[in-house]
Amino acid sequence: MRVEGAELTPGRAVVVGAGGGIGGALVRGLAAQGYAVTALARRPPADLPAAYIRAEIEDEASLTQAAADLKDGLPIVRVFVATGLLHAEGLVPERSLAALNADQMLRLFMVNAVGPALVAKHFLPLLPRQGRSVFAALSARVGSIGDNRLGGWHSYRASKAALNMLIKNASIELARTRPDAVIVGLHPGTVDTGLSKPFQRGVAHNKLFTPEYCAERLIAVTDGLTRDDTGHVFAWDGARVPE
Description:
alpha/beta; Rossmann fold; eight-stranded mixed β-sheet; 10 strands; single chain
């Protein structure tokens, strides 16, 4: 990574999952940088400086249509996939293998790995063939195999590890046609959103980030990435996360 960011080709930024805390903050941060932002979400996000297209990470048809709607507009030079699932009603991170449930495991893989891969399928072809562009998906440090010392959270860890492999694969494939594109995963840290709410106990005050601070850091990190960084995962502070 370099310290100073390079100018991106002027154009459009797309935020998938703009209805969430991090997604909405990314929309505002990118708009403040001067990008024309399109927000993809299940429902129209309130008070965001962005055009809106309905799309659902678990509905490929909606992603196909969203990509078609944007195909002939401004060149897309940034795509952020700001979706993720850790818990829901009746779904909690497993503490042991005995707690595994196939349906719940498949749901996490659908949201955390398959969905972002489908976004890549439909939006990577819209990136410019020449000139720098960035595709980034929210990953997690717990998806790192090399950094795993605690175990547990089997489905979430495995789904994020799968996402990291998909990012690596996509970076290799895309380099053949868009050599200036950068594809990465991003670890946002612990952010004060619904995803982390049940797990914030014990998190140091200075390590519990607001969505605005998180978005500011993630945008800054992607500003500084080069082609040498493609295919890897980076944390909110710019440090590379072990694979």
